[in-house]
Description:
Blueprint lengths: L7 H10 L7 H9 L5 H9 L5 E3 L13 H7 L5 E7 L11 E7 L10 H17 L3 E4 L23 H7 L6 E10 L1 H7 L3 E11 L3 H6 L13 H6 L5 E3 L2 H13 L30 H8 L6 E3 L7 E8 L2 E8 L10 H16 L4 E7 L6 H5 L2 H13 L5 E10 H7 L9 E4 L4 E3 L3 H8 L1 H5 L4 H18 L2 H6 L5 E2 L5 H13 L1
Parallel strand pairs: 3-4, 4-5, 5-6, 6-7, 10-11, 11-12, 12-13, 12-14, 13-15
Antiparallel strand pairs: 1-2, 2-3, 8-9, 9-10
Helix pairs in contact: 12-14, 16-18
Amino acid sequence: MTDNNKTPFEQLAARRSLLLDENRASMVEKRRHKGGRTARENLNDLLGGLDGIEYGELTVAAQRSRRSIKDLQVETPGDGVLTVIGPVNADSYPRERTATALIVNDYSVLAGTQGFFHHKKIDRILKLARQQALPIIMYTEGGGGRPGDTDVLIAMGGLNVHTFYCWAGLAGHVPRIAVNHGFCFAGNAALFGAADLRIATRNSYIGMAGPAMIEGGGLGHYKPTEIGPVETHLRNGVVDVLADDESHATSIAKLALSYTQGRAAIWQAHDQSHLRDSLPSNRRMAYNVRSIITTLTDIDSLLEIRSDYGKAIFAGLARVAGIPVAVMASDCRHLGGAIDTQAAQKASDLFRLAERWKLPLISLIDTPGFMVGPSSEEAGAPGVMSELFIAGATFSQPIVSIFLRRGYGLGAMAMAGGSFEVPVLAASWPEGEFGAMGLEGAVKLGFKQELEAAADDDQRKALYDSLLSEMYERGKAAETASFLEIDTVIDPSKTREIITSTLLNVTS
C-alpha cells in the first residue's frame, strides 16, 4: 500500500515507526558493538517504563535542499535529540513531584551534532522547564555544532543560538543534571560543563573542541580518545560522579534527581551505637570519615561527589530520616584534614549546589584549618579559600555543624558557613578541640620567647609539653561550650537523632 492509499492515521503511524529502535536495526547493532545503549533505551530507563510527552519527534535535519525527505526521515529522526517531559522516580514519589524535562542526545543521528532544529527542540524544552519549574536531565553525547544544515539560508556564523544561554540561565531556578557517555565535544561539552551535577561513564571523552577543530587551529592531530578522557576530568573536578556504563549512569542520575523530589517516606537507618568508638584514642591518628557519614545517613542514600578531587574534604548528597541533605566532611587522611585550594573549591561548589537545590547542609568538621605555605599561595589560596566564605555567606539553607574532633582557625569557620554562629546547630563530640590555630603551632608561636629562653632541649621539651597540655585542656569541647562558642556537646551515638530533630524544626 502506498502512502497515498493510507489513512492519515496510518501515515502518521508509519512515520512514527521510523523512530523506533526495532526499525533501526543497523543503528542498534552499531551501538551494541561499541558497548552503548540507544537514546530511547536511556529514555525508557529514565521513565521506568511509563509514558512521557515527546516534543518535536517528527523533526528531521534541516537538509532538505541536499537530501530527500525519505532519507532524512530514516537517517535523521528527531534531528538527533529526544526531548520529553515525563515522570522519573514515580515508583518512589508522588506523581506530582516526578515530572522532569528530559533531553537525550542521539549519537546514532549525525554523531549527535547540534543542528538547527536540534537546538530549537532543546530551547523549547528548556523554556517549558522554566515555566513549569521542572528539573532537567540531559544526556550530552555528541560532536558539537553541525555545519551541514543547508536549509538555514540566513545563517552566517551560526552563533545566534539561545541554547547555551537558556541552559546556563536555569542555574538556581531548576535542578540540572548532565550525563555523558562516549564523545562529547564543543557545544555538547559546554552543556555538560554548565550543569549543576555532572555524571560521566568510564568511556567518556569530553573536550571543548573535537579533533577537527583542534587540527584546524594548527594545534596538532589527535585521536578522539586522546581528548579529555574521563580520568583527566576526575582529577580536575569537571566530572562529579563516575559511572561504569549508561545503565549505571542512569541509576545515578535518578538517585541525584531524587534529592530534589522531597522527603522519602520509606527509609532505613544503621545502628548508631558504635559511633562512640569511631574515633581513634590517639588524637593524632587518622580515620575514615566515610564510615561515620554512612552510619549517620539513611542506608543506600549516599552519593559522593568528586571523590578524586580536593580529597581533604568529602562532598556528597544523602538523606537523614528521609530528608535530602548535602554533606560536607573533613577527611583527615589527606593533608591531615587541612583545606587546600582544591578542597576549598570543592566545598564552595557544594555550598552552591545545595543552595540551588534548596538542600540543608550537614558539615562534619575535623580540620586544623586552611593549608598554608608558599605552594598554597602559588595555587591561589587567598582568592580560592576566601570564595568559601562567600559561598557560606550567600547560603540561605540551614546548616548543622558537628565538630568530630578539631575545629581550628579560618578553615573550621569556613566549613561552618563562615562563623560558628551561622549554623542552626553547632555541636561537638566530646573529643572536640578548638582554637585559633593548631595547638602545636599556637604553642610555638605564642610562647616563642619562653621556649627559646629554656636552658636546654630537655627543659624546652618539658615546657612545650606542659604548655600544649594546658592549651588542649582550655580548648576542649566542654570548655568551649561553656563560653558559648559552640551550642552543645553531644553523645556521638545521638548525632543522627539530633540532626534529624534539628532539620525537622527548620524544614517542616
